[in-house]
Specification:
Elements: E1 8-11, H1 13-20, E2 25-27, E3 31-33, E4 40-45, E5 51-57, E6 63-69, H2 78-90, E7 101-106, E8 115-120, E9 123-128, H3 131-134, H4 137-148, E10 152-157, H5 161-164, E11 170-176, E12 182-186, E13 189-193, H6 208-215, E14 221-225, H7 231-237, E15 242-247, H8 250-262, E16 268-272, H9 275-285, E17 289-294, H10 306-323, E18 324-334, H11 341-355, E19 359-365, E20 384-390
Parallel strand pairs: 1-4, 9-10, 14-15, 14-17, 15-16, 17-18
Antiparallel strand pairs: 1-3, 2-6, 4-5, 5-6, 7-8, 8-9, 10-11, 12-13, 18-20, 19-20
Helix pairs in contact: 2-4, 6-7, 9-10, 10-11
């Protein structure tokens, strides 16, 4: 492929500036001349006709162009995809001895916008989240197979973002075979990922290091709120005397019991219930926990929901703080992109003040190595956590 073979998009000066400041997105309003081509790779020029590089083109999307390469590089072809994917995987090398499940590609965080690739043992789960990257599917699949020798590749193309790109929401097998469940070994803990129908691409890989962090500090009576399949609970159970895994889903809790048995742990009790109501009830009963995890789903999935999300995050953390035994430890997290780190700390400060407790901030956490957050691309970051210790 040569630059002459590609359709050309001309973008505004504002679009050029955005790229030069390190953000890969150019919005529809900054495309002065649309490419005369379907979704895929296009060349990009500024308003003066000076080449700016190459991008993924999504004709129906508000994010019309996503930068792939600069003007000094060759146009992205099959060899380019192979090299860029190989570079992303190489950055994950330090994780190899600790887990059999990790994110190989974190979209814009790896210079591969709108592409997610997660590895579960010898299988891959991908998400092609824009029309531009979806058009490059054959080259991506070929490169992934060559680089990993995987047994199968599953496309979890069911996020809502696909609909905004004019793409179908679907779960599709792209190569080989991928089982309904895959055992993951994570820092000595075994659990089952569900690539076809589990949360995200099958498991919450982004909390891996946080599970180890609180697991190493666990003691006494422990509580895992919003436990889902019990990934936090399993780590807590290795040091705590007892662990309560609390979730509103009976199906999820059945998996908690299965995971406990798989790890030879008999100190985990699954409790079905609404976390907000259950924590209040335990507070009225005077119950206390030495170790608590609060890892709720994203309460703010869009900016308009931020006010309600603030109230929800503050309330659940307030109840957890009140349940914390003297000297106890609380790990709390938010995976809402629209709730910034500053907002997260502010609501924890408010909850701490309302709880009447004396709480020390022992650690602030972000995303692990395989979920890189770029300073110039805030959209690559969403996860933030805090480790708190009761001083009273």
């Amino acid at each position: 492929m040569s630059a002459a073979d590609l359709a050309v998009a001309r973008v505004s000066r504002r679009g050029v500036t955005r790229w030069r400041q390190g953000h890969p997105w150019i919005y529809r309003s900054d495309v002065e001349r649309r490419p005369s081509a379907p979704a895929g790779v296009v060349a990009v020029t500024g308003p003066d006709g000076v080449p700016q590089g190459y991008a993924l083109w999504s004709p129906a999307s508000e994010i019309a162009l996503r930068r792939l390469a600069g003007p000094e590089e060759a146009p992205p072809d099959a060899a380019w995809w192979h090299a860029r994917l190989a570079a992303a995987m190489a950055r994950r090398a330090p994780l190899g001895g600790h887990t059999t499940a990790l994110r190989l590609v974190h979209g814009e965080g790896d210079g591969l916008p709108s592409l997610v690739v997660d590895r579960y043992d010898d299988c891959l789960v991908v998400q092609l989240l824009s029309a531009g990257v979806d058009a490059c599917r054959p080259a991506i699949v070929d490169a992934l197979q060559a680089l990993t020798g995987c047994a199968g590749i599953l496309a979890r193309n069911d996020p809502a973002t696909r609909a905004r790109e004019g793409l179908p929401r679907e779960v599709t097998l792209l190569a080989g075979a991928v089982p309904r469940t895959i055992e993951v070994v994570e820092h000595g803990i075994r659990y089952l990922a569900a690539p076809w129908d589990g949360q995200k691409t099958g498991a919450f890989l982004d909390q891996r290091e946080n599970r180890v962090l609180i697991g190493e500090r666990a003691r006494g009576a422990a509580l895992d709120c919003f436990a889902y399949h019990g990934s936090f609970a399993l780590h807590l159970a290795r040091r705590a005397d007892t662990v309560v895994a609390l979730d509103s889903s009976a199906a999820a809790l059945a998996r908690v019991d299965e995971h406990a048995a798989r790890n030879g742990l008999d100190n985990i009790t699954a409790v079905e219930g609404d976390a907000f109501e259950q924590l209040r009830q335990w507070g009225r009963e005077g119950r206390r926990f030495d170790t608590i995890v609060v890892d709720p789903p994203a309460f703010a999935k869009h900016k308009a929901a931020l006010e309600g999300a603030w109230r929800g995050y503050k309330d659940i953390n307030l109840q957890a703080m009140r349940l914390l035994a003297p000297g106890g430890t609380l790990f709390t997290a938010s995976c809402s992109f629209h709730l910034s780190r500053a907002h997260f700390l502010a609501l924890l400060q408010e909850a701490g003040a309302d709880s009447g407790r004396v709480l020390a901030l022992r650690a602030l956490t972000g995303q692990p190595l395989d979920h890189p957050e770029l300073l110039t691309v805030p959209e690559t970051g969403y996860l933030k956590g805090a480790l708190l210790e009761a001083q009273d």
